[in-house]
UniProtKB/TrEMBL annotation, chain A:
Protein name per UniProt: Xanthine dehydrogenase molybdopterin binding subunit
Residue intervals of the Aldehyde oxidase/xanthine dehydrogenase a/b hammerhead domain: 31-138
GO terms for MF: 2 iron, 2 sulfur cluster binding; iron ion binding; molybdenum ion binding; oxidoreductase activity
Cofactor(s) annotated in UniProt: Mo-molybdopterin; FAD; [2Fe-2S] cluster; Mo-molybdopterin cytosine dinucleotide
Family of this protein: Belongs to the xanthine dehydrogenase family.
UniProt KW keywords: 2Fe-2S, Iron, Iron-sulfur, Metal-binding, Molybdenum, Oxidoreductase
InterPro entries xref list: Ald_Oxase/Xan_DH_a/b, Ald_Oxase/Xan_DH_a/b_sf, Ald_Oxase/xanthine_DH-like, AldOxase/xan_DH_MoCoBD1, AldOxase/xan_DH_MoCoBD2, AldOxase/xan_DH_Mopterin-bd_sf, Xanthine_DH_Mopterin-bd_su
Any Pfam family matching the protein: Ald_Xan_dh_C
Matching NCBIfam families: xanthine_xdhB
TrEMBL record, chain B:
Residues covered by the FAD-binding PCMH-type domain: 194-367
Coiled coil regions in record: none
InterPro entries: 2Fe-2S-bd, 2Fe-2S-bd_dom_sf, 2Fe-2S_ferredoxin-like_sf, 2Fe-2S_ferredoxin-type, 2Fe2S_fd_BS, Ald_Oxase/xanthine_DH-like, Beta-grasp_dom_sf, CO_DH_flav_C
Keyword Iron-sulfur assigned: no
Alphabetical keyword list: FAD, Flavoprotein, Iron, Metal-binding, Oxidoreductase
Presence of the UniProt keyword Flavoprotein in the record: yes
GO MF: 2 iron, 2 sulfur cluster binding; FAD binding; iron ion binding; xanthine dehydrogenase activity
Residues annotated as domain 2Fe-2S ferredoxin-type: 3-95
Top-rank lineage group of the source organism: Bacteria
One Pfam entry name: FAD_binding_5
Protein name per UniProt: Xanthine dehydrogenase small subunit
PANTHER family with a match to the protein in the record: XANTHINE DEHYDROGENASE
């Protein structure tokens, strides 16, 4: 192995904020020297752990014979629920996620026991040798099953305003419809993994691929039956997260720690891909039913909409996810009279969880489906119906949940994108193409996005940072945020470098650790840079203020006269290098480390009624997608994408663009090809990349234009930037509606019935239904 | 007999004598060698995180100037270490210079922000390394093909494509050291059977050695490219018993074009077979471009695809429609049979114990025969087909004299649609006869519903493909297929 670190010198711009700065680990990524948990040197005596899984969706365990597991060559220990010294649970909100099933199993793949062996292959082979007998119980698999049996994991919630039912009956037009949308596997390229290293006197050090080290720490401690201060969780980087490592990492960390604790040996649990797909939660699939009243322009007068979701066997984050679906069932549209009802079903399937957008995409797809149906019903361009419904003006700015939309820019984005993408000219060209093309049909759609930024569970909107300046002037940065590829570490380092007026190369970014910054929130809700950027900014300011006071006193000037820039500190005639200043401050016994803290202001929402201000601000975007479909096979191809997205004044435009592109493609996968198929027995049939297809390189058109709106956030976020992780995911709704437009062009009229994902099969069946309806 | 695997790595010959024969190259690299740059994303050949590059000496034997090294990307996760024998191994850690200077590909990936989480990145770098050494100025379709076996969940691929376009082709250290490496490769060339010390695994060097070995071990598992067999080990943890690795048999890998036939040796890789077949039949080119990924095609053999007997293998319907035959050999005896007769029932073939597939014979095109094939899958690239169709017709004075409509995904084996064929014979191939043939499929097939597609979809689509083919004959100027590659707005037609 090449011993030297990869070299890829790049100029160091100052100030760093708002610059296109590459990901801090890029040279390591390309050289294969960036370390993920499985790449860490393995400590001597390491045990490899595998999990035994339930074969049934819902059953009582009658017996579990593990003798063949225990005697398999290489096996060192086997653990069941009885071997857990603390609590047998890793539920993040409600304690309903057992580490090992005791007497009841509630999904296929549920963990039953752990086996630790000297090799990974031995552990996995042994885990398959358990003999378990079950008494099967009736299993609720689908949303329809749950609806029929009234199976709820949480009580329904409703947000209502005005007189939706009364207005529906008096509206000039009225339409009802429904839409089903599938779930989605995260398919982070690095699967779930934890390595636990036991220390002295009950200490436990866990290296874990997680977005939520604090929660993993707390749940590991709880399972071990020890206070939090015995456990350190560390994560340098993840090979992707997307929400799938927010709560889902805890089970595997807890098991690794339990094995390590029990055996006194380090233990690593890395899931095989298929097991990862079977055992971990996914995006919630939804079914939507609506009844809408509108006028001749398609303006919505009243809407009654029902959102039903499959939550799986436990609560996990389903409450907040379904809340967010409600909060996004308006998208950019003012709904004067509205009733949104949300059902959260319990099913005997893996517990669904956070996934980029966190319910927002489902709520947004629902309302965009309504608007599209209205347009096809009236025979109007869907864009004109979208426009007719936009928020705007003092009497059209209140969301159904009572938050005022004060920063609305989607109208301007639509106008600008309509023109830069030549939307109208392309629509005309497409109509001409379709008229002459018997088999292939093209379609285009322009859809907007408005996404609320903040955790809707308000207390989570806090962050901490720890900055240490060493006596040579180099800076070490730690904050509660985790790096999963989004470039958070880079962005926060930019902020910190600028506070000190030093080059980015002087700021070292280290692994996120619970012993450096405690009680952090998950890196989620797109809020990573907003929260940790601000906390780190505050920490850096504290140290800079101390340095300023020190040098100002020495120079006999006001601290406010000082400038920190280009590695120097200056005031009129005085100048000193940052490094020298630090050295002198150290000699003068000035403290050079500080914590920083930040709590998002202004937010306040009632947990039960959901009325209030759940969001600090909104991020906006709009996209045009064009597709072609084959009306004989249902195959589709994305032809062109034009995006305009709002990142405020971007902290790092090139990283933000990466988020926008990646999110769009992931959303396109959700809506077009990624299909989770559960059979009647509750087994996931698409549990590997051979059957579960995420977008590949060839699915991305050459025409893939992304422009960022460079306009300051109205709210005082870090350097007036906006969150970017999740909002662009929903830009892909345009691809799905472009497919619907192409289906519409195959014959017939009225709304297009097409569930998501729009696989070739669904597209073909939609085309046939329309052609049959049109008598073709 | 040789008793160890030898390969070239970083300018040196590496000898392995104690590695179990079903150890994958990925586990060998990561766990035995501690080289953890190569990643595991799926352990089944689908994600490309484990991509490595193998160099093979090619060219005219003995004519030094005409020799070179062909670099091809393969998936390490389903490749057994035996497959390294006689090759040069290149992994992601090998590309940067001794002082840490990045390879031009790596630098392009950094400059174009081609990594986010970075976990897929080593695999992309290696696929691009193979492309760098094979294609001077790759266009977008070529780049897409080279990267179809690499999944990235973060970037959306655009920056990686930009990096591929910008990587250039400045000679690198691999080019500079080609002469030395060739000498090393020549020095490890093997002519005798490689026998694993445990006596449970063999790698013959010639087809005669293979024939003898198989007579002695009729129950042995044959491993060619291992793209099916590899998963039996990594996913099903199956014990393969005695293994005979045939990937290194050069006299079974040849492709010749004589007497109106293309003779493809059973161990010719799909990549090599596709090269000649796509020149003769453009539709086959399109099929093979979408067959697995470049990594899979570089390992997979046509013989393995056929011998595996899967009802959803892609090559069979097309090759049956072309009237291909199969050459089988047992000991000194060879026999030839029509490909369609090889498939008896679900995963059961006509192969006798001790027998192996020696070659596939494909007739060359002729003016009176029409041919087309269609692959229908959820994702366009690198996906197993829901329906695979191969169509062949012989016409005389505008009348169909022979029809060969073969399908995959419609029955327990790759199978011809005899009723649909009958609907065409003796008639012109027009909209009416096509419609009747499509309707007759319901009597030919009762397909299954599974996670890839419903029975209904399979049947409707299979029929529609006959209609589409007919339409393509009648309206050759009309676009009837979604483009493999979207060039620009309006590029659909
Ligand atoms: C990611 C991925 C994608 C894939 N995509 C496709 C696809 O798109 N289309 C498709 O059709 N297939 C696909 N496959 C399946 C596989 O690549 C093919 O079936 C391949 O052609 C098998 O060839 P092989 O040399 O790797 O066979 P192996 O795995 O080595 O062997 C397969 C079987 O054939 C037997 N065998 C091999 N050679 C001989 C011989 N000469 N004589 C007798 N028996 C023999 C073996 O004993 C074994 O039973 C894919 C596989 C993977 C992993
Ligand atoms: S690890 Fe996914 S292809 Fe090898
Ligand atoms: S960069 Fe994360 S998967 Fe490609």
């Amino acid at each position: 192995m090449s011993a030297r670190p990869p070299r890829s010198p790049a100029p160091i711009p100052f100030p760093a904020t708002h610059q296109n700065i590459r990901h801090d680990s890029a040279p390591l990524h390309v050289a294969g020297t960036a370390r993920y948990v499985d790449d860490m040197p393995e400590p001597p005596g390491l045990l490899h752990v595998a999990l035994g899984q339930s074969a049934k969706a819902h059953a009582r365990i009658l017996s579990m014979d593990l003798s063949a597991v225990r005697t398999y060559p290489g096996v060192v220990a086997v653990l069941t629920a009885a071997d857990i010294p603390g609590m047998n649970d890793v539920g993040p909100v409600v304690a309903d996620d057992p580490i090992f099933a005791e007497s009841l199993v509630e999904y296929v793949g549920q963990s039953l026991f752990a086996v630790a062996a000297t090799t990974r292959i031995a552990a996995r082979a042994a885990a398959r040798l358990a003999k378990v007998t079950y008494e099967e119980l009736p299993a609720i698999i689908s949303i329809a099953d749950a609806r029929a049996t009234d199976s709820h994991i949480l009580p329904p919630k409703r947000v209502e305003r005005g007189d939706p039912l009364g207005t529906l009956s008096t509206s000039p037009h009225r339409l009802s419809g429904n839409l089903a949308m599938g779930g989605q596997d995260h398919f982070y390229l690095e699967g779930q993994i934890s390595m636990a290293i036991p220390g002295e006197d009950g200490d436990m050090h866990v290296l874990c691929s997680t977005q939520h080290p604090s929660e993993v720490q707390h749940l590991v401690a709880r399972a071990l039956g020890r206070p939090d201060n015995h456990v350190v969780v560390e994560v340098r980087r993840m090979g992707g997260g997307f929400g799938g490592k927010e709560t889902q990492a805890s089970l595997f960390a807890a098991v690794a720690a339990l094995v390590a604790d029990r055996t006194g040996r380090p233990a690593k649990l890395r899931l095989d891909r298929d097991d990862d797909m079977v055992m971990t939660g996914k995006r919630h699939d939804f079914e939507v039913a609506y009844d809408v009243g509108f006028d001749d322009q398609g303006r919505i007068l009243a809407l009654d909409i029902i959102l039903e979701s499959r939550c799986g066997m436990s609560t996990d984050l389903s409450g907040a996810i379904n809340d967010r679906a409600i909060f996004h069932a308006d998208n950019c549209y003012y709904l004067a009279n509205v009733r949104i009802t949300s059902y959260r079903y319990k099913t005997h399937t893996v517990s669904n969880t956070a996934f980029r957008g966190f319910g927002g995409p489902q709520g947004m797809l629902a309302i965009e489906g309504v608007v599209d149906d209205i347009a096809h019903h009236l025979g109007l361009d869907p864009l004109s119906v979208r426009r007719a419904n936009l928020y705007g003006g003092p009497d059209r700015n209140l969301t159904p949940y009572g938050m005022k939309v004060e920063d609305f820019i989607a109208d301007g984005l639509l106008d600008r994108l309509e023109s830069t993408s030549s939307y109208q000219a392309r629509r005309t060209a497409i109509a001409a193409f379709n008229a002459a093309s018997p088999v292939l049909k093209r379609g285009i759609a322009l859809t907007p996005v408005k996404f609320g930024i903040s955790f809707t569970t308000s207390f989570l909107n806090q962050a901490g940072a720890l900055i240490q300046v060493y006596s040579d002037g180099s800076v070490l940065l730690n904050h509660g945020g985790t790096e999963m590829g989004q470039g958070l570490y880079t962005k926060v380092a930019q902020v910190v470098a600028d506070v000190f007026g030093i080059g980015l190369d002087r700021v070292r970014i280290t692994a996120t650790r619970t012993d450096k910054v405690p009680n952090t929130s998950a890196t989620a809700a797109s809020a990573g840079a907003d929260l940790n950027g601000m906390a780190s900014f505050n920490a850096a300011r504290t140290i800079r203020d101390r340095l300023s006071a020190f040098i100002a006193a020495r120079w006999g000037i006001e601290p406010s006269a000082l400038r920190f820039a280009n590695g120097k500190v200056m005031a009129s005639d005085n100048i000193i290098s940052f490094d020298d200043l630090v050295r002198q401050a150290y000699l003068a016994r000035v403290s050079l480390s500080a914590t920083g803290f930040y709590a998002t202001p202004k937010i306040d929402v009632d947990k039960e009624t959901l009325i209030g201000r759940p969001f600090y601000y909104f991020a906006y975007g709009a996209a045009v997608s064009e597709v072609v479909i084959d009306t004989l096979t249902g195959e589709t191809k994305l032809l062109a994408v034009d995006i305009l997205h709002d990142c405020g004044t971007s902290l790092n435009p090139v990283l933000d663009r990466g988020q926008v592109e990646g999110a769009y493609v992931q959303g396109m996968g959700w809506l077009t090809m990624e299909e989770l198929v559960f059979d009647a027995a509750g087994r996931l049939r698409t549990h590997a990349p051979s059957t579960y297809k995420i977008p590949g390189c060839g699915d991305i058109p050459d025409h893939f234009k992304v422009d960022l709106v460079n306009q300051p956030n109205q709210e005082e976020t870090i350097h007036r930037s906006k969150a970017v992780g999740e909002p662009p995911f929903m830009l892909a709704i345009s691809a799905y509606h472009a497919i619907k437009a192409a289906v519409a062009a195959s014959g017939g009229n009225g709304p297009v019935k097409l569930d998501a994902p729009a696989t070739p099969e669904r597209v073909l069946m939609a085309v046939r239904a329309r052609q049959a309806g049109a008598g073709a | 007999m040789a008793d160890c695997v030898r390969f070239v790595h970083r300018g040196q010959v590496v000898t392995l004598s104690d590695v179990p024969p079903t150890r994958t190259v990925l586990d060998y690299l990561r766990e035995d060698r501690g080289r953890r740059g190569t990643k595991e994303g799926c352990n089944e050949g689908d994600c490309g995180a484990c991509t490595i590059v193998l160099g093979t000496r090619v060219g005219v034997l003995g004519v030094t100037e005409a020799e070179s090294i062909q670099y091809r990307a393969v998936n390490a996760c389903i490749l057994f270490v035996t497959a390294l024998d006689g090759k040069e191994l290149v992994t992601v850690e090998d590309l940067a210079g001794p002082d840490g200077t990045l390879h031009p590909i790596q630098q392009a990936m950094v400059d174009h922000h081609g990594s986010q989480c970075g976990f897929c990145t080593p695999g992309f770098v290696m696929s691009l390394f193979a492309l760098y050494h094979t294609e001077a100025d790759p266009d977008r379709p070529r780049i897409d093909a080279a990267l179809a076996g690499n999944l990235c969940r973060c970037t959306g691929y655009r920056p990686i494509v930009d990096a591929a376009r910008a990587m250039g082709r400045a000679p690198d250290t691999y080019t500079a050291q080609m002469t030395e490496t060739l000498a090393l490769l020549r020095s490890i060339e093997r002519h005798e059977t490689l026998s694993h010390p445990g006596g449970t695994a063999f790698a013959p060097a010639t087809s005669d050695q293979l024939a003898d070995l198989l007579l002695a071990h009729p129950d042995a598992t044959i491993v060619a490219g291992g793209t099916d067999v590899g998963l039996w080990v990594t996913k099903q943890m199956r014990d393969l018993g005695t293994i005979i690795h045939i990937g290194g048999i050069s006299d079974l890998a040849g492709i010749t074009h004589t007497n109106g036939q293309i003779n493809i040796g059973a161990t010719a890789t799909v990549t090599d077979a596709a090269e000649i077949l796509s020149r003769l039949y453009p539709d086959l080119g399109e099929l093979f471009r979408r067959y697995g990924s470049e990594q899979v095609r570089n390992s997979a053999t046509l013989g393995g695809n056929i011998a595996n007997g899967s009802p959803i293998g892609d090559s069979m319907p097309a090759l049956i429609a072309l009237g291909s035959t199969l050459v089988l050999r047992r000991g000194g005896v060879t026999r030839e049979m029509p490909l369609q007769d090889f498939f008896l029932s679900y995963r059961k073939t006509a192969l006798q114990p001790g027998e192996f597939v020696a070659a596939i014979r494909v007739p060359e095109p002729s003016a009176d025969r029409l041919f087309a094939c269609y692959k229908i899958s959820k994702r366009f690239d690198q996906d197993i087909s829901a329906v695979m169709a191969g169509f062949g017709l012989t016409l005389k004075d505008g009348i169909v004299t022979e029809a060969r409509l073969a399908f995959g995904g419609m029955a327990g084996t790759p199978k011809r649609a005899s009723r649909a064929e009958a609907a065409l014979i003796g008639r012109p191939f027009d909209a009416t006869s096509a419609k009747e043939a499509a309707a007759a499929l319901a009597q030919d097939f009762q397909p299954l519903t599974d996670m890839r597609a419903s029975a209904d979809y399979r049947l409707v689509t299979a029929g529609n493909l006959i209609l589409k083919w007919q339409m393509e004959q009648a309206l050759p100027a009309t676009a009837t297929r979604v483009p493999a590659f979207a060039r620009a707005i309006g590029g659909a037609a």
